Amino acid sequence: AAEAFDRRIGLLPRDATAWRLKGQSLLSGGDVDTASEALVQAVEIEPDGADGWEALGRSLDLQGRLPEAAEAYGLLVSLDPSRSEGWIRKGNCEFRIQRYADAAASLGEGLGTGPGSAEAWFQLGSSLSELDRLDEAVDAFGEAGNLQPGNPEPWFQRGAALQRLGRIHEAIEAFDRTLEAAASHKGAHFLRVIAYRELGNPEEAAASFEAALPLAPDDPLVWWQLGITREELGEIGAAAEAYRSMLEREPGEPRARY
After folding, report:
1. Residue 68: exposed, middle, or buried by beta-carbon count in 10 A (0-12, 13-18, 19+)?
2. What is the spatial distance between Cα 35 and Cα 27, in angstroms, rounded to a whole number?
3. N or C: lower Cβ tally within 10 Å for the chain?
């Protein structure tokens, strides 16, 4: 198909549509580098063509040229702010190069003007979390989880943000949702333990530790935390056993009490 556009370009070398269609055809065929060259020609000839910038953004994204892709998507949405997918693609690129403030702004704009995917909501939540905008992050992770309830990560990150906010009961609920989706999720087990300890409930913390131990049986920190929890319960023998297990894995560890 690209050859047909070459014939048209030979007749009309300033035909931006022909250059764009050639680039899109090459992009569909997997020839990303040549596609980008054709699409650069298209936007140079017609800088006000939103479709050209959208296609160029996709091509640059596939090449891993993320700052340039974000710039192309930025020009797209400056020409047509109603393009929610353009905002989301821009935010996706910005998120991947850790420009979290820009990503949060772009993703928020895109998700506010059109339907969004679980991935976009998750990236928005992650960006907001990096910016310590935790209340907003909690809401974004909740949207991601509702769209994809079988994915444990949105629920886990929601729980972690809630825990940082001191909303411990809600954090435990989120960790429970994580474990419903992935029973072996190590992070959810251990943050759930810490949450119960923060609530002053060492019984639940100890029970959670016992469930988590098979996931990290060789981690001395896990045994240390279990020892502290057993100590809080007045179970000195069980605490000593946990500390001994810790020392078996890390001899000379000064935090062992018994």
Report:
1. middle
2. 5
3. N
Does residue 80 come out as left (phi exceeding 0), alpha (psi in the -120 to 50 range) or beta?
beta
**Model confidence over 17-38: pLDDT tens digits?**
999 999 999 999 999 999 999 9
Instruction: Encode pLDDT of 143-193 as tens digits.
Output: 999 999 999 999 999 999 999 999 999 999 999 999 999 998 989 988 998
Environment class of 37 (CB within 10 Å of its CB; exposed 0-12, middle 13-18, buried 19+): middle
Task: Name the residue with tokens 């990290």.
Answer: 216
* Structure letter (DSSP) for residue 99: -
Residue 252 to residue 234: CA distance in whole angstroms: 24
Beta strands in the chain (DSSP E): none
Q: Residue 188 has which token pair?
A: 């959810």
Give the model's pLDDT for residue 254. Answer: 60
Predicted local distance difference test score (pLDDT) of residue 202:
85
User: Any idea what the Cα angle at residue 85 is, between residues 82 and 86, rounded to 5°?
Assistant: 75
Instruction: Report whether pLDDT(1) > 80.
Output: no
pLDDT at 253: 59
Q: How many residues are recorded in the chain?
A: 258
- Phi then psi for residue 228, to 5 deg, are -60, -45
What are the Cα distances from residue 227, in Å, to 213, 256, 258? 12, 8, 10
Residue 31: count of CB within 10 angstroms of its CB:
16
Helix axes 84-96, 118-130, angle to 10 degrees: 50
Q: Give me the pLDDT at residue 216, please.
A: 78
